[in-house]
Write a structure and sequence with these properties.
Structural class: mainly alpha
Radius of gyration: 18 Å
Shape: globular
Low-confidence stretches: 101-109
Number of helices: 9
Largest sheet: none
Number of domains: 2
Amino acid sequence: MKQTYTDQELVQGCIDNNRRHQEALYRRYFSKMMSMCRRYTDDDEIAMSVCNDGFLKVFKKIHTFSFKGSLEGWVRRVVYHCMSDYFRKNAKYLQFMVFEDYEQSSSPEIVPGLYFEDLMQLLKEVPEKSEQVFRLYAIEGYNHREIGEQLGISENTSKWHLSNARKRLQELIKEQKNNYVQRNK
């Protein structure tokens, strides 16, 4: 018989290094975190590796969770930061997130030195609603139905905002690439 734990019991059990509590936390949030990781890559091995690395960090840092928000939100942030670290080291995946039709073989690096933080800076120049949709979809792993519910818009409007954000980011990245080329002539 499966045991259902409260968030408090899960956290305390994980702090105590109780394997049943760790497994319960992992099972409770794995599919959502894996979905978020898959938003960044089509490679299931990379997504699984990043997700599991994220959970390892969750278990190592669980003692810092202070119940000032939801446990799921905290786990999502920890896994997200693990993804950020991975993709900062592997910028081609970051660029894939913006350029849907990006082919690694034809252009291994669209903008030299473009990292996660750079994209987040550029994202601030995207119209607010499109920025929100892009963050929710590409970074936090929500689908268009969930985004629509959260922002009070239709699924199709969410899709339009995502497309709009990608187009604007592509323009901004190309501007940066041109500036980079001009500076390094």
